[in-house]
């Protein structure tokens, strides 16, 4: 059964309302914003595999976002990823009331000291090291014996009996989603950019593996990939029934409630089909199909929005059943002459029993991960209170981007995210005839093309409201975790036109973004952060070539760069944890009234292994 719903054919929406398909900002929920947010970040974390906040990182047993039962199961199967060192601890004993405070020369995060009351006897008070302080790496497994021992042979008998791959009876994290298409059971695969930006159609969707990674707003966060369309016959093939642009490919199947059970959950179609001709109509979801004519594939799939509602057997369980699936598609017309078509995919798993979480993808936890977007936003004040917060730009700080097919700056495109740690240069072209160049030059608007290409980000920068996240998970509700973007070369000079050759000076053609970065936290778990952000606008003279016909458009370029400069800090990457510096000089008369010649200045070092300590104690007893 298809759910009967109104289906909106919003014709032209894709062009007219880019905000709907690609909003520029995340909303602020003012109730969550504190009036005086805390200063400083809590870096106490030793879970190095927890790379994504709010997401259960795969096989990361110390990730608090994973269900406990899942972590336990992973731990039992010995598949936990390295978790990093726990804090080094030094347990030592002191006689009651004897020592008030111990001043170990340890610095910041290297030691946690635990005092224990010592045994109430002479040796106990004198010689007591409770635990060695060797860093523990992770769970330890005894080295299993090899060869025909310990039941090894019986575990790999011959002849082998055929083993079917087991399909779990309920969905667990990362279990493939099973569907039935025309009665054939298969795994759900959606377009993904696996090896390059080109869509691969074999990427299986795993349970709880949101696409893109992270929790999403109800708003649009999509992963995208490109369909190359070299010629009309390729487009025709994509467009035919079951082709990668055909809507039924993404909706004409049912989902299996459990991996092994019948596939009997029909997706509901909640919203919008978009086409390109300007009127909005409703249609029956089952009747809308793609159609190829005159080099154009009408009703080609552009956005695929899948929401899977699941329920857990109980709150501590990792085993789930799919309750409902909703699929939203937006369609558009694609012409073979465009050369390429971008498809967008979003898959969100929602606990049917819980409210939908409204969260945003971040770029690290807490420090930035290289290659993820530099978080950016605009300082915003609540009109109804004194609260301030940062309204995040969905793509962070962006640079003007050329269109995929011809490299011209697309007005309204939001540009490409600047990525943490990646020095980059972006270009896009503006095409102007000589007359257009002259009229632009006399418009008194030198930033016009840059502003068109960057929109909100540009506005925020020049009003000094632009902020950059200090940490990869900077909380938009806490302005203290955001840094102002300092701006140079602003305000702009007047443009001036000179006729021969036709040239326009002082055009604002882009920016250079300089980001100073630093590292923090213990050397075994370095976290990267932003220390300072400086944006300098670039200006240039645009000259129309004298050799070119005045009516022929010439390409002028917007160019922006991003440079990440690491601060030269005291390097700690190779620092070994110092051994606990407990070092007690035993007084010369310790064995009074016995006298030994060698007992002078015996040294007890905490480095001493438990064995040698025991030997030492034995020696004392023998004495
Ligand atoms: C920092 O986080 C750790 C671990 O989550 C917690 O134990 C500690 O209390 C926190 N410290 C502060 C000051 O919030
Ligand atoms: C959808 O699938 C059913 C069989 O499962 C098939 O009969 C029908 O023709 C398909 N519809 C479209 C539009 O492909
Ligand atoms: C995707 O579908 C969900 C569930 O129907 C809906 O809440 C969300 O707004 C949709 N997202 C977009 C971008 O349409
Ligand atoms: C727009 O397209 C729809 C279907 O593709 C068609 O029914 C409608 O008449 C078109 N409207 C205009 C104004 O061309
Ligand atoms: C980026 O450029 C800066 C300054 O030129 C340089 O220090 C840094 O190493 C570069 N980063 C990369 C990843 O190349």
From TrEMBL:
Residues 1-21 form the signal peptide. It comes from the Eukaryota. Residues 44-133 form the Tectonic-1-3 N-terminal domain. InterPro entries: TCTN1-3, TCTN1-3_N. Pfam families: DUF1619_N. The keyword Signal applies. The keyword ATP-binding does not apply. Keywords: Signal. This is Tectonic-1-3 N-terminal domain-containing protein.
């Amino acid at each position: 059964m298809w759910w009967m719903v109104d289906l909106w054919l919003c014709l032209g929406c894709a062009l007219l309302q880019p905000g709907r398909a690609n909003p520029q900002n995340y909303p602020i929920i003012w109730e969550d914003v504190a009036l005086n947010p805390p200063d400083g970040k809590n870096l106490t974390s030793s879970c190095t595999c927890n790379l994504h906040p709010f997401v259960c990182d795969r096989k990361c047993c110390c990730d608090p976002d994973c269900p406990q039962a899942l972590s336990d199961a992973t731990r039992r199967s010995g598949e936990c990823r390295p978790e990093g060192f726990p804090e080094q601890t030094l347990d030592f004993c002191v006689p009651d009331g004897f020592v008030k405070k111990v001043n170990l020369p340890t610095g910041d995060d290297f030691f946690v000291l635990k005092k224990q009351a010592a045994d109430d006897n002479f040796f106990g008070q004198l010689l007591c090291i409770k635990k060695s302080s060797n860093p523990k790496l992770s769970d330890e497994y005894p080295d299993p014996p090899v060869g025909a021992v310990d039941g090894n042979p019986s575990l790999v008998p011959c002849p082998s009996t055929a083993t079917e791959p087991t399909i779990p009876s309920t969905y667990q994290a990362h279990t493939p989603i099973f569907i039935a298409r025309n009665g054939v059971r298969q795994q759900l695969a959606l377009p993904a950019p696996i090896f390059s930006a080109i869509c691969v159609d074999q990427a299986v969707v795993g349970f709880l593996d949101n696409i893109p990674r992270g929790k999403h707003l109800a708003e649009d966060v999509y992963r995208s990939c490109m369909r190359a369309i070299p010629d009309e016959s390729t487009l025709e093939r994509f467009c035919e029934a079951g082709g990668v642009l055909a809507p039924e490919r993404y909706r004409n199947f049912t989902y299996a409630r459990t991996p092994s059970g019948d596939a009997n959950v029909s997706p509901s179609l909640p919203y919008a089909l978009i086409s390109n001709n300007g009127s909005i109509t409703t249609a029956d979801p089952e009747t809308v199909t793609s159609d190829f004519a005159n080099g154009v594939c009408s009703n080609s799939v552009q956005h695929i929005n899948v929401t899977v509602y699941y329920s857990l057997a109980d709150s501590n369980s990792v085993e789930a059943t799919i309750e409902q699936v909703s699929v939203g598609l937006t369609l558009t017309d694609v012409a073979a002459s465009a050369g390429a078509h971008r498809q967008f995919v979003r898959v969100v798993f929602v606990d049917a029993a819980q409210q939908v979480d409204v969260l945003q993808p971040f770029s690290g936890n807490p420090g930035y991960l290289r290659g993820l977007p530099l978080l950016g936003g605009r300082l915003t004040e609540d009109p109804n209170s004194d609260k301030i917060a940062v309204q995040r730009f969905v793509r962070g700080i962006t640079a003007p981007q050329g269109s995929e097919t011809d490299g011209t700056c697309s007005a309204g495109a939001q540009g490409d995210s600047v990525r943490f740690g990646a020095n980059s240069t972006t270009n896009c072209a503006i095409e102007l005839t000589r007359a257009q160049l002259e009229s632009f030059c006399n418009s008194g608007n030198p930033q016009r093309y840059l502003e068109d290409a960057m929109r909100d980000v540009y506005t925020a920068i020049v009003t000094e409201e632009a902020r950059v996240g200090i940490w990869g998970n900077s909380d938009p509700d806490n302005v203290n975790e955001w840094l102002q973007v300092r701006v140079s070369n602003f305000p702009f000079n007047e443009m001036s036109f000179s006729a021969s050759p036709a040239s326009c000076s002082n055009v604002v053609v882009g920016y250079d973004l300089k980001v100073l970065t630093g590292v923090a936290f213990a050397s075994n778990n370095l976290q990267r952060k932003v220390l300072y952000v400086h944006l300098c606008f670039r200006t240039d003279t645009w000259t129309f070539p004298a050799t070119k016909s005045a009516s022929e458009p010439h390409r002028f370029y917007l160019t922006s760069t991003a440079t990440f400069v690491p601060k030269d800090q005291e390097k700690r990457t190779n620092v070994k944890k110092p051994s606990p510096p407990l070092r007690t000089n035993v007084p010369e008369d310790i064995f009074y009234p016995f006298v030994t010649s060698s007992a002078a200045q015996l040294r007890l070092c905490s480095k001493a292994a438990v064995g040698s300590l025991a030997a030492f104690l034995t020696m004392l007893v023998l004495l």
